[in-house]
Amino acid sequence: MTLDANQILALAPDPASAKAGSQLATPRNWSNLGTSDCALWGECQGSGKTPYRTQIDLGGPAFKCTCPSRKFPCKHGLGLYLLRAAEPSLFGQAAAPAWVSDWLEGRQTRQEKKATVKDAGPEAAAQARKREEKREDKVSAGLAELQTWLHDLAREGLASVRSRGQGFWDAIAARMADAQAAPVARRLRRAGSMLYQSGLRNAESLVANELASLYLLAQAWQRIDELTPALQADVRALLGWTMSQDEVLRQPAVTDRWRVLAQCTFDDERLRVRSTWLLGAATGRWAVHVQYAVGTQGFEQQLAPGTAFDGDLCFYPSAWPLRAQIRRQDDVQPLSAIEEPSSLDTLQDTYADALAAQPFLERHPVLLGGLVPDGADHGIVRDAHGRRIALHPSFRQPLHLLALSGGHPLTVCGEWDGRMLLPLAVWHDGRLYNIDSDLP
């Protein structure tokens, strides 16, 4: 598609962007200019030391830029397009660099998915695409506002917001809900409530870690087209995009003897959520099966901790796949043995690999052996070498854990966040005790 200057300026979101884009349409502002049959790209030096990477899908046209602007297209995209219209000889024909080709491939993938959302014809597909693009724009605007809020909070410090109460957190959470980023809204409300829970240890540290994770998520969304498809799926899932069960069950299946090692049920606003951790006997692969129920509605699939079954699991797309749906479940039997538990050193190595692949990882499953609760400090356990492992402050049964141990080593199945362990189940004397259901 070839546009002239007037047509390009008509794409500007406002007169200020059109003016700024026109000012940028000079060769001195740009480097690494290039074009292919379907794209246009270049780097524009901004106020920082790293140039902004700007790219245009000529088939749209569609724009992408690494600048922090919330306008679409931004002044850099307009400037690049105007420069091409004015001086096409500056753009040598070349193969697109990876940061451009990856973006184009991601766009093509999303377009193909959008085109198959419904089989009701092109009109319905076009409406679905418009809804999707509208939501993406709302999420982008909301996360840009969140980044500004986080910058302000970083300058003020967490200590300064304690006196403002929960309403301070609810306000920004409501803004995220309006931006159709409901999971972010829930995390913000939960982070704020941590500061006002008198019995919660290290509340400021927990909140700071949560806010840092949200900031990383906002940054990832801003650069989502530069991420791998698997990591894009993680980011979109964390922002509230869902994948239907039928879509998941069309993924390749992993067949194994799956051991049901832990289960917890909790309330998440109006929903009841049940997470069940499974471990493959042959593959050694972890999976978490998540179910939702409303009100008194029961959960569709019943998975009993302390059992095992032959089955096929289909995993949600992810850079470190954990969540899965069960396609087949046969031959359910009581659990008579479990895998050899790992050590703290092995856990640290495995967690490092997981975090390198999926930096937004919130919980990592673990089966740790040789753990003895500390009789003096109920907030820690010790491994076989006497090393301290902090228990997550949300864990409410440290005395029951101590009583079950009786001073002897336990094998604990739980969730690790890189700093603390949340016990979910205990294997002791040939029996699995699920903490959520078996301990008072």
Automatic annotation (TrEMBL):
Domain of life of the organism encoding this protein: Bacteria
InterPro entries (alphabetical): Znf_SWIM
Chain segments carrying region Disordered: 111-138
Composition bias, Basic and acidic residues: 111-121, 129-138
UniProtKB keywords: Metal-binding, Zinc, Zinc-finger
Keyword Nucleotide-binding applies: no
Metal-binding recorded as keyword: yes
Domain SWIM-type: 52-85
UniProt name for this protein: SWIM zinc finger family protein
Organism: Telluria mixta
